[in-house]
Amino acid sequence: MRTSNVITIRAPLYLIFSIASDLARWPDFLPHYRYNRFLSPMPWGGIVKMAAVRTGIPTSWISIYRIGYVRFINAHQSGGNRSAWWSTGG
């Protein structure tokens, strides 16, 4: 099964990248996130324990988080779930 959500953000890429790649601050911007904690920080991202509330149910998972700088902005993987953000413009 594949699910896709697409949004358009009209902002400079550097600003989007700086916010999206600051995983530790996601709970400041996304109210359903309870916390994101780096278990193993690496220069390319790291291993992160993430927690959120989904449909009223608290949940947590461990993700591999990778940061890229060209077209590929940010990705994390958890079990069989994979999330990725791309930029299609400058």
Task: Give the secondary structure arrangement, pairings included.
Elements: H1 13-20, H2 26-29, E1 33-42, E2 45-54, E3 57-67, E4 72-78, E5 81-86
Antiparallel strand pairs: 1-2, 2-3, 3-4, 4-5
Helix content: 10-25%
Q: Could you tell me the strand content as a percent range?
A: over 45%
Weakly predicted, low-confidence segments: 70-75
Instruction: Give the structural class.
Output: mainly beta
Shape: globular
Q: Gap between N and C termini, in Å?
A: 31 Å
Radius of gyration: 13 Å
Features:
about 90 residues; mainly beta; five-stranded antiparallel β-sheet; 2 helices
Give a short summary of the structure.
The protein has 90 residues and is mainly beta. 13% of the residues lie in helices and 49% in strands.
